[in-house]
Amino acid sequence: MTSDYEVKDLELALLERAEHLAQEHLQRAADERERLIHEENERLHLREEREVLAAKASGERLYRRRTQAEEIQLQEKIDQLRWKLIQSVMQGLLGRLDKLAENEQEYLPILERLMIHAAQAIDDDELEADLNARDLKRLSADWESFSKRAVPNKTIRLNPDPCNCTGGVMLRTLDNRILVNATFEGRMERYEDELLQVIMERLFSRTTDIGDLVHG
Known about the structure:
Elements: H1 2-102, H2 104-120, E1 126-130, H3 133-139, H4 143-150, E2 155-158, E3 168-173, E4 179-183, H5 184-190, H6 192-204, H7 210-215
Parallel strand pairs: 1-2
Antiparallel strand pairs: 1-3, 3-4
């Protein structure tokens, strides 16, 4: 009998031990599951954060690119408007000069000075002058006295064919080797850089910077 009880006790002990080990394994499995779930959640959270940061950075880059493109387009439009305004001022200047040329009392002394400066730039003693149709009509009959009064040391003959200009004079050597363009248009072209600088300073010296326009 004693042996039978000992066997049963041993079986009970083994069963308890097995159950205890099974419980330990189940708990370890549950703990491992919880750990894996936690780590996976952490990885998902970190990935979401990275994706949000990447999306935010991408959105900021896209915004900057769009803003820069809009600034460039705005600057181009402003430059086009500025250039149109400058050209309008240049055309207005020619209109003012044309009005000046209509007034003989004010204009003829200017024409005389232009002819003097042009003649001083040419060494030849015999020259030919080109005038526009209006000045030809004014000065043809009195050209010799007008030219001698302006340039007494040279002979300047008058070309009967008019040149296309608002006012002023073109002087040339008889062989066309040297020509000095002292017309209003010629002088404006020669001093174009200086004229543009003055016009831009007068028009845009108080213009707000493009960055202030865009960013406030």
